[in-house]
Amino acid sequence: MSKKISKYLSLMAFLLLAINGSAQELPYQNSDLSPEERAKDLVGRLTLEEKASLMLDVSQPVPRLGINEFNWWSEALHGYANNDSVTVFPEPIGMAASFNDELVHEVFSAVSDEARAKYHHALRQGLGNKRFLSLSVWTPNINIFRDPRWGRGQETYGEDPYLMSRMGVAVVKGLQGPEDAKYKKLLACAKHYAVHSGPEWSRHELNVTAVDQRDLWETYLPAFKSLVQDANVRQVMCAYQRFEDEPCCGSTQLLKRILRDDWGFDGVVVSDCGAITDFYTTHNVSSDEKHAAAKAVLAGTDVECVWANYAYSKLPEAVEQGLITEAEIDEHVQRVLAERFSLGEMDDPSEVKWAQIPLSVITSKKHKDLALESARQSMTLLQNENNILPLQKNIGKIGVIGPNAKDKEMLWGNYNGTPIETVSIYEGIASIIPEENIVYDKGCDLVENKVTLSYFDKISAEGKKGMKATYWANPNYEGEPVISKQITAPMKLTTAGNHEFASGVPLTDFSAKYETVYKADKTEELVFKFGATGHFELLVNGESVAEYDNWRTLPTREVLQVEKGKTYDIEIKYAQLNDWQANIEFNFGEEVPVDYSALLEKLADVETVIFVGGLSTKLEGEEMPVNYPGFKGGDRTNIELPAVQRNCLKALKDAGKKVIFVNCSGSAIALTPETETSDAILQAWYGGELGGQAVAETLFGDVNPSGKLPVTFYRNSDQLPNFEDYSMDNRTYRFMDDALFPFGYGLSYTTFEIGKGTLDKSNMKTDSNVTLSIPVTNTGDREGTEIVQVYVHKKNDSEGPIKTLKGFKRVNLKPGETKEVRFNLPAEAFEFYNREARKMQVTPGVYEIFYGNSSATANLQKTELNIQ
Q1: Does residue 8 sit within a domain?
Q2: Residue 727 lies in a domain
Q3: Ranges of H-type helices in 583-668
Q4: In the predicted model, is pLDDT for residue 569 greater than 90?
Q5: Cα separation of 841 and 833, whole Å?
Q6: Total tally of structural domains belonging to the chain
Q7: Within its chain, how far is the Cα of 393 from the centroid?
């Protein structure tokens, strides 16, 4: 049968269905039925090939049944990611520092509003159902941040299972909307299940074995259980690595026995992108695609995400070969369709109230205010010698230096969208004090102990300075170019904000070549620095120096030895790929050592210096090709502040400056030397689009800092066990008590006194609860917020955690004011793993209840409870 006839018959079938449907509605078209009932009816009308296509993350349309294309992969980590002109909130690790799950719920209600508004606007423009522009968002990341070297820990809510659970539940409820609504607002996703937190460099081969059952049930699984049972999360993403010899996406233990049988999860399991491919390429547990597909589906993975070729497209062959039955596939397709029906995605938009959210909510004043408030509450003051902070606004001249002072993109974190406007830390400070009073200098690089002197003014193409850029309106460098032009400055091009690379160049499906010639005027070593989102290849004299396809722009460097008098043809090939925003950066030149003498001379008449440093998502993140000293694949090999910054801080201190260190990072940094070279240390995380404003308001006292550390700040790297060892021994505050800055720690510009707590009973049954009442007083001279924390430990349990968080509350107090804070501790707060019963359980015994304003023993008081 010809394709033309086939298309005609499909069209006629669809028209007949539409005509008949007006007279007699089929069950799957009836929006009064439950999503499960509709899905069950629709599955029976599909061919095997159609069923397989619906299990792909880019699910194919079935026009004859009115099924649209559907993309399962969008992101909403702290805003609607990979989209332009959206609100960008602080990175999750920063939001975790607020210890405010109510605020987090507000944030993600706003995020889901923006997602729905963008999605329906795109549909009306005929541009909907694209990757990163859909109603399924793979958020939140609730893996325990067990090791500060993990580059993706910034995406999580810290190292504590209870804090992670509380925050994760708030995220899911904000994204999915009210439980009693007819339609889900979005489909949230708990990832990456399970026992997953790096390293990035070995995640495709790593086999996590011999995990103690206490660690599994008390540390790695609680947040996933909470999101399933307390938030009704509709998706769970299985992780890349193996767990006890089985890939997580092929583990019946994880996906069937625990997730579905024990916890009752009835939603969709999606694979991390490429995880099924790993079955037969890196884990070597399957021989080919169809065996991998059958294994994953039978274990419980409903949807496959890939970078290239789908294993699940081979499911019909797997059925034919007897590896799996069509009935077994039906179970998974039914789940997939039920979730789509739950969104109203196949119903008339007039029936779906979320489809009516106006475009005006996006980056609205309400959302910007929310972004600023969440950034303010994330500010965590770690040190304040002699109360140097807050600074006086009439301070006079002040230095603002450091590699992150003017870096706006650093504030966006990772897995981010692009805001309309971002306030850098420098700009935030300049909005509070006169800019003429600010002496600015970058001071040093984030990592490199050298500065690159650009040679862009030494290159030429066809007799003209710079690089010749040629653009085509296709990704294959074919046909007549759209335009050719000369680029005369270091390249930094992006389609963000719908900016063209050059006049007439489309925003998608385009390619480019950049060509120039450099004649060496001396024999030396040159460094090439570049990055791109899309396809990138750098060639020198026709030989490929670097080539990759990437979905985000990452800083990469290559070194080339040149000889005096020789010419070097430099060529870059670029192509925009998939639905990813196009970006490209390129510069090259000579590296020279950092010399602080010029900086100090510039700051000669400045007494106080704000140094804005730390890290960046250009250094820490997901599976990155960045291998600067101290970094590997997006992770860190040590947790010390890069030496170039330590040296700069020391030079400032040795020169007699008062130094305020603003540390921007998504993870803990060992700041032992910095406590000596800095008068104050403010942990600012990655604060989102208005993070710079929040930092400035905190430094100058408009905001009284209230953030608390959601992760332990260790003294040095020597305190850390082997990165690939998943035992919790000597990890986090729960299993070690010798931190530089402990979990839950954070200073204020006022002082608080936490009085003696009282229990409403000293004995209780294993299925009861108890109330702890604690008086808290503001003993300082300004209004502030204290975060009261409650920890539990079973007495005489030597192998369990030293203490583990079971409650927290934010208490706002005026000077001299006292409030009584009450914690209702349910039976679950005293639940630990019982080896004899092989499950989590409340068992009789004496329990120590600690309470205070950090996890440090010195900051806690204690009472005891007897459980019978």
Answers
A1: no
A2: no
A3: 596-602, 643-654
A4: yes
A5: 6
A6: 4
A7: 35
Shared domain check, 112 and 179: yes
Specify the DSSP element, H or E, that contains 175: helix 161-176
| pLDDT score, position 627 | 66
Q: Is the pLDDT assigned to residue 8 strictly greater than 70?
A: no
Q: What is the pLDDT of residues 266-291, one digit of tens each?
A: 999 999 999 999 999 999 999 999 99
CATH number for the domain spanning 766: value is 2.60.40.10
Tens-place pLDDT, residues 22-59: 447 899 999 999 999 999 999 999 999 999 999 999 99
Q: Which residues pair with 31 in a beta bridge?
A: none
Burial of 22 per CB tally in 10 Å (0-12, 13-18, 19+): exposed
Cα 329 from chain centroid (whole Å): 32
Helix axes 161-176, 101-124, angle to 10 degrees: 30
Residue 272 annotated as catalytic: yes
**Closest to 329 (Cα-Cα) out of 294, 358, 355:** 294
Tens digits of per-residue pLDDT, 643-678? 999 999 999 999 999 999 999 999 999 999 999 999
The active-site residue, picked from 114, 339, 620, 635, is 620
- Out of 593, 624, 649, a domain closes at 593
Cα separation of 337 and 297, whole Å?
16
Handedness of CA 275, 278, 283, 285 (dihedral sign): positive
Q: Which domain holds residue 772?
A: 752-867
Q: What pLDDT sits at residue 7? A: 42
Question: Shortest CA distance to 151 belongs to which of 111, 202, 108?
Answer: 202
Of the three residues 361, 392, 423, the one that is the final residue of a domain is 361
Q: Which two tokens stand for residue 127?
A: 């541009």
Q: What is the mean pLDDT of the chain?
A: 94
Cβ atoms of 698 and 610 closer than 8 Å? no
Amino acid at 670: A
Query: How many Å apart are CA 415 and CA 723, to the nearest integer?
Result: 24
User: Residue 508 sits in a domain of what CATH number?
Assistant: 2.60.120.380
Residue pair 104/166 in contact (Cβ under 8 Å)? The answer is: no
141 and 34 assigned to the same domain: yes
> 823-866: per-residue pLDDT in tens?
999 999 999 999 999 999 999 999 999 999 999 999 999 999 99
Q: Residue 799 domain-assigned?
A: yes
The token pair at 563 is 């000889």
**Same domain, yes or no: 459 and 432:** no
pLDDT of residue 567: 96
- The answer to whether the beta carbons of residues 124 and 133 sit under 8 Å apart is no
Backbone torsions φ then ψ of 26, nearest 5 degrees: -75, 155
Tell me: do 604 and 624 sit in the same domain. yes
Residue 215: predicted pLDDT: 98
Partnered with residue 549 across adjacent β-strands are: 535
Pairwise pLDDT comparison (224 vs 11), residue with the higher score: 224
Q: What is the pLDDT of residues 688-697, one digit of tens each?
A: 999 999 999 9
Same domain, 569 and 501: yes
Please classify residue 154 by burial: count the beta carbons closer than 10 Å to its beta carbon, then call 0-12 exposed, 13-18 middle and 19+ buried. buried
Nearest to 605 by CA among 376, 854, 438, 382: 438
Category of 400 on φ-ψ map: left (φ > 0), alpha (ψ -120 to 50) or beta: beta
- Position 264 in a domain: yes
pLDDT digit string, tens, across residues 121-144: 999 998 877 889 999 999 999 999
Catalytic residue status for 591:
no
Contacts of 327 (CB under 8 A, 6+ apart): none
Residue 279: CATH number of its domain: 3.20.20.300
The answer to whether the pTM exceeds 0.85 is: yes
Residue 496: closest CA among 59, 214, 83: 83
Q: Which of 106, 200, 218, 272 is catalytic?
A: 272
CB count within 10 Å of CB 725 equals 16
CA distance 851 to 863: 9
Taking only the tens place, the pLDDT of each residue in 302-326 is 999 998 899 999 999 999 999 999 9
Q: Which of 65, 592, 658 is nearest to 388 (CA)?
A: 658
